[in-house]
Amino acid sequence: MQNNIQKKRVRIATRKSLLALWQAEYVKAELEKHHPGIEVELLGMSTRGDKILDTPLAKVGGKGLFVKELEVAMLENRADIAVHSMKDVPMEFPEGLGLSVICPRERPTDAFVSNRFNTLAELPQGAIVGTSSLRRQALLREQRPDLEIHDLRGNVQTRLSKLDDGQYDAIILATAGLIRLELQDRIRTELSADICLPAGGQGAVGIECRLDDHEMIELLAPLHDARTAACVTAERAMNRRLEGGCQVPIACFAVLNKAEDEVYLRGLVAKPDGTTVLRDEERGAPENAEQMGIALAERLLDAGAQEILSAVYASGNAQA
Ligand SMILES: NCc1[nH]cc(CCC(=O)O)c1CC(=O)O
């Protein structure tokens, strides 16, 4: 195939939240940097996840709540690519679509955000903490069974304004989103991965496109970060084997060492009330990231994860 790229126009499908727009603008700027003269356009869209705001996220159901409408736009050729938070991207793609790029990861941790307290340990008995993620809920309860966890929906700004209204003593948000929106001043502490292991893909941005659009795949290639991709591949393989996404009490987080020859993957499956947290880990070469994720998932299943996940699904507290 020849190397001179013909395509000069790229339409990016994106959600309209400030965080989604930041991510789409980031991809636009990167494309413009690597391909001077290219024309990049943002196509803002609402997804079901954006529209249903009054129901706890874990009960809304349906995979890919935040991505489906963007995928339809690509399949109908109204858009060329979609930019996603990897945490929200389902394990399987519609036929003809796939991830072609994973961008360099932002900080992957969760952040403790409060107007009155500096750390989780400082919270008084029975304090109210806002989060809509079963993973965060379980891991907070593991540390502090006395806390009251209340649901918290909406985009990052909405969640912060609910905190400021006094509805919660503290809330937990992804550090990456706060940094991207220049809201890092709101972070009191970053929760360590030992306490609050991140969700698979957290902090990473991915680009989905039509798999037969070879010109687009070639255009996007310079945005790919192989190091982040190795980590996210291991995390997603674990999630896929557990059939879990970000709406079940599953966490997985991989790091690559400096020599770039070893991936260290940690995973867990928790009861939503935090009384049981099954943790395990795996190390291996980046080329084996996928197999590592599967192996870790299978050990967790053997250790009792199947039972925990079946109970979560049966209670209707998670999307299938
Ligand atoms: N589920 C919503 C979502 N998806 C991605 C991020 C943060 C950015 C990222 O992880 O890349 C957030 C908000 C949050 O969890 O605080």
UniProtKB/TrEMBL annotation:
* Coiled coil feature spans: none
Span of domain Porphobilinogen deaminase N-terminal: 10-217
> Residue limits of the Porphobilinogen deaminase C-terminal domain?
230-301
Q: Which residues carry this modification: S-(dipyrrolylmethanemethyl)cysteine?
A: C246
Domain of life of the organism encoding this protein = Bacteria
Q: Which cofactor does it need?
A: dipyrromethane
Name the keywords, alphabetized: Porphyrin biosynthesis, Transferase
Q: Which residues cross the membrane?
A: none
InterPro entries, per database record: HemC (IPR000860), Porphobilin_deaminase_cofac_BS (IPR022419), Porphobilin_deaminase_N (IPR022417), Porphobilinogen_deaminase_C (IPR022418), Porphobilinogen_deaminase_C_sf (IPR036803)
Q: Cite the PROSITE patterns for this sequence.
A: PORPHOBILINOGEN_DEAM (PS00533)
Query: So, what pathway does this thing act in?
Result: Porphyrin-containing compound metabolism; protoporphyrin-IX biosynthesis; coproporphyrinogen-III from 5-aminolevulinate: step 2/4
**Which principal EC class is assigned to this enzyme?**
transferase
Q: What is its EC number?
A: 2.5.1.61
Record's catalysed reaction(s): 4 porphobilinogen + H2O = hydroxymethylbilane + 4 NH4(+)
Return the cofactor note field. Answer: Binds 1 dipyrromethane group covalently.
**GO molecular function terms attached to this record:** hydroxymethylbilane synthase activity
One further remark on this entry is:
The porphobilinogen subunits are added to the dipyrromethane group.
Q: What does this protein do?
A: Tetrapolymerization of the monopyrrole PBG into the hydroxymethylbilane pre-uroporphyrinogen in several discrete steps.
Q: Which family does it belong to?
A: Belongs to the HMBS family.
Q: How does it assemble?
A: Monomer.
What this protein is called in its record is Porphobilinogen deaminase
Organism the protein comes from:
Neptunomonas phycophila
What gene is this protein a product of?
hemC
